[in-house]
Specification:
Pfam families: HAMP, HATPase_c, HisKA, PAS. It is a multi-pass membrane protein. The chain is of the alpha+beta class. It folds into four domains: 163 residues, Four Helix Bundle (Hemerythrin (Met), subunit A) (Up-down Bundle), CATH 1.20.120; 102 residues, PAS domain (Beta-Lactamase, 2-Layer Sandwich), CATH 3.30.450; 70 residues; 150 residues, Heat Shock Protein 90 (2-Layer Sandwich). It has 13 helices and twelve strands. A hairpin with a 2-residue loop joins strand 3 and strand 4. The relative contact order is 0.05. The mean pLDDT is 88. The chain binds adenosine-5'-diphosphate (ADP).
Length: 571
């Protein structure tokens, strides 16, 4: 049965019974009232009249006139109040006997009157008794019905009182408990209510919800597990080494490649901090050192008897948690990008360049030699056109030699086969040697080169003379190349702290700031310029200077000229 029907029936019945009880009570009270009224009007009054007549009869001898009037008045009232069987005859007899008495009073006649009055009184007394019996029955009936109905009301109220709160509260308590279970992810929880249809429906809906949540949970869990597996497999199959650290530097993930190159196994790593692992592992220690300042230099690691090259990258992981706005740091990933194939290609290219430039150097030198011999008057006189032609062949040959020289230098730099001959060098000698090399080039554009030395005579740099002259030479030939006709190139050599700084300033067209970093990269040339260079000079210069523990750089802006500088440590 529905709870609503149950409540309607229970409370409705109670209401109906209370109404019935009130109606019945008032009906019986009215009935009892009419019964007592009947006794009062019909019998009590007749007894009263009879008593008054008896009193008047007693006084009739002493005060006859008032007593007679009093008697007659009460007799007249009695005549109008005839209610009992035989009362009429008794009243008629009374009137007759009183009349006779008035005509000729005597004790016998008075006795007759008294007997009539007693008859009337006893008739009314009996009437009272009878009617009182009826009133008692009415009262008993009323008591019976009121008590019966009251008992039924009490029973119903009692049942409702004990049943209803429990019927409602128990399922609510059970439901509250089950909702808490669901909130605690116990999706096996089910509810079963007996009794009311509404609670059965509620239980069914709850159970369906729990089942769906269970389904959803298991499906998302398996999906998440699947996704996790997929990502793990993906990370494991990567050719790059990946190590995941949480915000407290605990290793929570490491792929097979990382295990292979670090020579570790998973069990001894997971759950440990990277610092703990670094204690017994050189590579991890190296990675840790570079963690806050990642280096761009590739790391060489020998695995499977083969040299592998890795580029280290540190990726910080920041997430925005659900419901939050701020990004939160939750760890970082150390990525060792495997660049071995590129390195191998690079080596092949460097070897190729080295071989070609080496092979070209001899025939080019031979050509230059041949050209110089042809220019010798011993072998005959040349006309002006032939001389011009030979000059041009000589220049081209020189340029080819320069290029092959640069390429050879580059291959030396790249293979790490560069050999430095560090000695105490005089900055002045370096500058003069470099100027000497470019004098002819400067003359062609009528460019003057002046130098200023803000150093002491005994200030020497610790450097490889030839390589430093080569760098200086490269700066100067670039400055000449990019200067306009009839301009001036300024060389400044100054002492700064424990270094000697060499600056070469030209008033050429300058370099846009956005290219400043790239011009020191291999093969880079400022876009839009068609020069016959290789884009290698500055890259080689940078390498030569850095190998000598010096610094190299440029200050320049478009149309403002350029200052290229390098500094070397004092000897
Ligand atoms: P390249 O053989 O092309 O001269 P470099 O490495 O010496 O190669 O120079 C790289 C590029 O830098 C040049 O192509 C040129 O565009 C620019 N550059 C170098 N020096 C200067 C300079 N003094 N003024 C303007 N641009 C320069």
């Amino acid at each position: 049965m529905k709870l609503k029907t149950k409540l309607t029936l229970g409370v409705g019945l109670l209401f109906f019974l209370i109404v019935l009880l009130s109606v019945m009570g008032s009906v019986y009270i009215n009935k009892l009232k009419s019964d007592t009224e009947k006794i009062l009007i019909a019998n009590y009054n007749s007894i009263e009249f009879s008593k008054n007549m008896l009193l008047a009869l007693d006084k009739i001898k002493s005060d006859s006139l008032i007593a007679i009037k009093d008697f007659q008045k009460n007799s007249a009232l009695q005549e109008k109040n005839l209610t009992e069987f035989g009362e009429k005859e008794a009243t008629q007899n009374l009137n007759l006997h009183f009349k006779n008495y008035l005509q000729q009073p005597s004790d016998d006649k008075e006795k007759l009157i008294r007997e009539d009055l007693v008859t009337i009184m006893s008739l009314n007394m009996k009437g009272i008794e009878r009617k009182s019996d009826i009133a008692i029955i009415t009262a008993e009936n009323a008591t019976f019905w009121i008590v019966s109905l009251g008992t039924v009301c009490f029973l119903i109220a009692f049942i409702l009182l004990f049943n209803l709160p429990q019927t409602i509260a128990e399922p609510i308590n059970q439901l509250t408990f089950s909702i808490r279970q669901i909130a605690n992810k116990n999706y096996n929880e089910r509810v079963h209510f007996k009794g009311s249809e509404e609670f059965n429906d509620l239980a069914n809906s709850f159970n369906i919800m729990a089942e769906k949540l269970q389904e959803y949970e298991s499906s998302t869990l398996s999906k998440q597990l699947m996704d996790k597996k997929r990502i793990e497999t993906l990370v494991n199959n990567m050719h790059d080494a990946v190590i995941g650290l949480d915000e407290n530097h605990f290793i929570y993930m490491i792929n097979d490649e990382a295990l292979k190159i670090t020579n570790l196994n998973k069990e001894e790593i997971i759950g440990k901090t990277v610092h703990e692992v670094a204690v017994n592992n050189d590579l991890v220690r190296e990675l840790l050192k570079n963690m806050d300042h990642p280096v761009k230099e590739p790391i060489k690691i020998v695995t499977d008897n083969k040299e592998n090259y890795f580029e280290q990258d540190i990726i910080p992981i920041n997430i925005v948690k659900t419901g939050e706005k701020e990004k939160k740091y939750i760890g970082r990933v150390i990525l060792l990008r495997n660049i071995t194939p590129f390195k191998e290609l690079d080596f092949a290219k460097t070897n190729f360049i080295a071989t070609i430039s080496h092979e070209l150097k001899t025939p080019i030198s031979a050509i230059k030699m041949g050209v110089q011999l042809l220019g010798n008057q011993k072998f005959g006189e040349l006309n002006d056109q032939q001389k011009e032609l030979l000059k041009s062949i000589n220049e081209d040959g020189q340029r080819l030699l320069d290029i092959t020289g640069e390429l050879l230098n580059l291959s030396q730099v790249e293979t790490g086969n560069i050999r430095l001959n560090i000695e105490n060098c005089s900055p002045k000698e370096i500058v003069h040697a470099a100027i000497k090399n470019v004098e002819k080039l400067a003359e062609q554009k009528n460019i003057s080169i002046n130098s200023q030395f803000s150093i002491n005579d005994n200030d020497f740099v610790s450097a490889d003379f030839d390589k430093t002259v080569w760098v200086m030479n490269n700066f100067l030939s670039n400055a000449i190349k990019h200067s306009f006709q009839d301009e001036n190139i300024h060389i400044l050599v100054e002492k700064i702290d424990s270094n000697i700084k060499f600056s070469i300033t030209d008033t050429g067209k300058g370099i846009d700031e956005k290219y400043h970093r790239q011009i020191f990269d291999r093969y880079f040339q400022v876009p839009g310029e068609h020069q016959n260079g290789t884009g290698l000079g500055l890259a080689i210069s940078k390498n030569f200077i850095e190998k000598q523990h010096g610094e190299i750089g440029v200050n320049s802006s478009l149309n403002q000229g350029s200052t290229f500088y390098f500094s070397l440590p004092l000897a």
